[in-house]
Amino acid sequence: MAQQGHRRELRTDFVPATRTFVRSMFPAEADPELVERVAVDMSSAPPEVAVEAVYNALSYDRVMPGLLEELDLPLVAINPDGLGTDVESLERYGAEVLLLPEVGHFLMMEDPEGVDPTEDAP
Predict the structure, then answer these.
(1) Which residues in the chain come in under a pLDDT of 70?
(2) Are 24 and 45 in contact (CB under 8 A)?
C-alpha cells in the first residue's frame, strides 16, 4: 500500500487499519496470542499521536546514516532474517549485524532470548 494511502486509511479507520498493519509485521508461524495482544495494544493508542509517530519512524531511514557516523560506541543491529535488512550498509557504518530466523518486526517479543545481549557474555 502506498505510504499516503496507508496514512489516510490509518487516519480514517484507525483501529482496523492498525491491527491489519501490525499483524502484517509478524511471520505466519508467530504465536497468534502474541500477534493479537500487540495488534490490540497498538490500536488502542490515540490516533492523533500514533499516525504521526508511525510516519516519522518510517521516514527515519533518511536520517539514520548520518546518526550512525556520529556514534562512537559499539553498534549491534539485531534484525529479523528475511525482511530485507541491508547488511552491507549497516556493516559499512561499523555495525555488527545479527539476523534472527523465524521472527518478524517484534523480534524482542517473539524471541527474547535471541535478542538478549548478555546471552554470550562472560
Answers:
(1) 1-6, 61, 117-122
(2) no
The pLDDT assigned to 27 comes to 92
83 and 109 share one domain: yes
Q: For residue 96, what are the β-bridge partners?
A: 76
**Buried-exposed string 77-95: b where 16+ CB fall within 10 A, e elsewhere:** bbbbeeeebeeeebeeeeb
Residue 63 counted as domain residue: no
The pLDDT score that the predictor gives to residue 1 is 41
Residues making up the chain, counted from first to last: 122
Grid cell digits, residue 120: 554470550
One domain, residues 83 and 54: no
pLDDT given for residue 53 in this prediction: 86
Range(s) of the domain holding residue 75: 71-117
